[in-house]
Amino acid sequence: xxxxxxxxxxxxxxxxxxxxxxxxxxxxxxxxxxxxxxxxxxxxxxxxxxxxxxxxxxxxxxxxxxxxxxxxxxxxxxxxxxxxxxxxxxxxxxxxxxxxxxxxxxxxxxxxxxxxxxxxxxxxxxxxxxxxxxxxxxxxxxxxxxxxxxxxxxxxxxxxxxxxxxxxxxxxxxxxxxxxxxxxxxxxxxxxxxxxxxxxxxxxxxxxxxxxxxxxxxxxxxxxxxxxxxxxxxxxxxxxxxxxxxxxxxxxxxxxxxxxxxxxxxxxxxxxxxxxxxxxxxxxxxxxxxxxxxxxxxxxxxxxxxxxxxxxxxxxxxxxxxxxxxxxxxxxxxxxxxxxxxxxxxxxxxxxxxxxxxxxxxxxxxxxxxxxxxxxxxxxxxxxxxxxxxxxxxxxxxxxxxxxxxxxxxxxxxxxxxxxxxxxxxxxxxxxxxxxxxxxxxxxxxxxxxxxxxxxxxxxxxxxxxxxxxxxxxxxxxxxxxxxxxxxxxxxxxxxx
Length: 497
Prior knowledge:
Elements lengths: L11 E2 L2 E2 L1 E3 L2 E3 L6 E5 L6 E6 L3 H18 L4 H17 L1 H12 L3 H27 L2 E4 L10 E9 L2 E5 L7 H12 L3 E4 L6 H13 L7 E3 L4 H9 L6 E5 L3 H8 L5 E4 L5 E4 L5 H13 L11 E5 H15 L19 H16 L3 E2 L5 E2 L2 E2 L2 E4 L16 E7 L2 H10 L2 E2 L1 E5 L3 H10 L4 E4 L12 E2 L1 E2 L2 E2 L1 E2 L1 H7 L1 E9 L9
Helix pairs in contact: 2-4, 2-6, 3-4, 3-6, 4-5, 5-14, 9-10
């Protein structure tokens, strides 16, 4: 959709997308903009406002004031507003998906699916939030030794205040609403700082909430350079909670943020352990799906395959046959492999490939790159001294490490500084559970590739993969705090006989 036409005309000014604060679409006083480049063409695609620190201050001040009133709005009315936003998001799925295609080179069909899934997530959160937040707890004092029934304790969940949401480029709509919807149903205000690649899709998402009639100031969408407003936002005293999904930046945020709840989902080096009794066809299909979907630009992508030597040749052969069928090209054509998000990402991936080549990895395909487009590549006979064995490529490169024992695979998995997800392929449920227990990672998938969804499942990582847990229920819990009211009663008069 051309700039300045259709349902998004109100949020564009002179070819530059406005930011959203205090219920209005605004142009930054900085007079500057940030250019978003199309990963496929490497040409300028969109421009967004470069907001100032003063504009951040004003947005947070408005959020604090709006939140006080929003917290008093009945739960069912909050849910009703979220359902309206969900319907609007689905209604505008095609133009929003078009932004995802141009901003982050997401294949067209996957882009539409992300928007629809996000609408479903908002609606589910509205319903689940009503159930969770309706429940409190009742305690009586004489349930603890030495006490009479002189106190009645009532607990309930109340909002934290202002939630700062920072989603990543790879799912800028879904991972924005996974933070926005729980925050709002819980009675919080939200300040969204979208990623540069994905900022326009984020603005369009916020426009759906704007049209749904949420109170002025309750939701803000601040665009700009991380170097100018990143630390200012994350260290702002008006922010009461941070929900971040992304890479190493999250570790820096966790060190700088104040004493507030943090929800951090960071990188992953998700290991796929394939045992000698596995269904090799199933394992091969999942290695390809898990390793190459959206060109491997997923925190839950299969990042290393640890396969028993006795079945390694069979697995590698079947994976290679499937890789040969992957379509490489433009996201508009629904290709399986599209350009990675930036030139710097492509250069980083190429560095990992060169290191593997110098150290003797077996290339199952010829390494091929055109601009930001990298062809899918399986690297066999990878050893622990290669960077690709440990570092996260975030691209269509999958390393295979041959192992001689289950213990060797578990050791490699647990030696990583990442611990987001992992998976194991075996026909023996006892072995599967033993390995799941031994793998030090947030989630273990049995006989399936790692995946974040469905969106209501708990989702968390250990070590450098993050802190806190996502999923609708967990996010609502994290974005609330317990309020206790104690009713003091007269001392009872009683006799035991």
